[in-house]
Batch of 2 targets.
Target 1
Amino acid sequence: MKLTVQHKPMNLVRWQPITISKSNFLKNNLGIVRKPYLCGSMSSNIVVAIDGYSSCGKSTLAKALAKKLHFVYVDSGAMYRAVTLYFLRHGVDILSPKAVSEALQNIHLDFHAKDYETHITLNGEEVSDEIREMKISELVSPVSALKEVRTEMVKQQQRMGTSSNIVMDGRDIGTTVFPHASLKIFMTADPKIRAERRYKEMIAKGDSISLEEVFENLAHRDYLDTTRAESPLTRAEDALILDNTELSPNEQLAFALEHVEPFLKK
Ligand code: DC
């Protein structure tokens, strides 16, 4: 599999603290965190790893943070989704490691970061919308559980972290892809709230789907993602926990900025 990332150069780190009182923020909103997170980075780049359950706002936070810091943003889930789309279109037998490995050789993913929105092409075709459809959500967890797929994805993702400051979201970023990330955040939220948020997004896009179907899909994916053999979704010991059930996007961003700040000053 080949993967290319096209981003504007973003070496300049311009961080402006946003105004939110830390004490109020912690008192009112955080039922959460409590671990020191300094774990040192292996490279000189700053890597922020954001992991967590399905539809708990990882990409919203990751995008906002990358935008604020002028870091590269990588949505690792989009990669698994694009591979799933390829497998679906080509009828790849996911029970056959040989077929899976061969298929991976024929996949070229290309990320274009435009306004910090993920635009991904699969063998030259823009598939950013199609990979969000339910037909992909229903298959992506079994595909992303395959050893061959994970090995390839992790290799590509690690490569991206060697050349730029980066914010990457996913399921195994802090545990497997970047175990030495500067900052690790593990996101969670009430499953009902997550389903409602996702449902509203899908309805706004014109999908016809029920809240129950969305809820079932999230629950099923969480189950598969946390129980699979290959790098299951789990919180890295040194990850900060961010439960955003009752947090606004700005509060979440303030939380992340506050914790990444020490690395920016180095
Ligand atoms: O973040 P998302 O919902 O778009 O991710 C889709 C699926 O991809 C998710 O159900 C599990 C898988 N995934 C993964 O296994 N590892 C990652 N780093 C990112 C996503």
Target 2
Amino acid sequence: MSNDDALLLIVSSPSGAGKTTLTNALRASVPNLLFSVSHTTRKPRAGEVHGREYYFVERKEFERLVREDTFLEWAEVHGNLYGTSRAEIARASEARGLIFDVDHQGARQIKSTRPDAVAVFILPPSMRILEDRLRGRASEDEATVQKRYKVALQEIQHYGLFDYVMVNDDLNAAIEKLRSIFYAEECRRSRAARTAEALIAEGRGYGGTVPPREAP
Ligand code: ADP
Ligand code: 5GP
């Protein structure tokens, strides 16, 4: 069934603040909430699967896709190219919602074509904790950790682009906050209007609860 009211949820954060952890937890508890799988020229981390976390492609292939207008948005982040294909956003119509894990450039571009998208920014409790989390992930070398930490500071300066800004301190509390944003946004009048209008049409169609007037 096609769903024109599917929620487009952009989740951004400085690298290491926990958006992957939080979006995975949200998806585990909300059925039929899909993840937009981006293309990237970054090399896969241990455990990452082509087509699940990302479509991993060579730079030449990415540039060809750009020329072919495959992407709704794309950007260079940490020296690698990342992009959301138009095919991914089309998947939203088959789902309850679609999560985009993109940086501030991607958030801005998605918002400009889909102003109904909801953008959430996740902050670390402190810069010190962010550095610990980047290091704790143990999937990158020290130079990469340092590069990501520097970019994190720049990324935070773009918080003003976002509809919601939340701190990922206690993990369970943060999951609750993100879930609350999702449910509240799903109930937004503009998104629920179609359902309400369908009920009104249905009610009118067969007389609703108003009994037919008795003939005199
Ligand atoms: P991002 O996707 O934003 O780069 P990750 O979700 O990969 O961040 O999280 C970075 C690291 O921090 C991971 O090792 C993750 O397990 C850890 N982490 C995430 N959220 C919390 C939290 N609330 N408390 C402690 N550690 C966390
Ligand atoms: P990572 O390499 O840690 O998976 O992601 C690095 C950064 O790239 C993160 O800030 C992530 O949100 C961003 N990113 C991932 N996919 C996309 C995308 O398709 N477009 C944009 N603009 N950024 C992306």
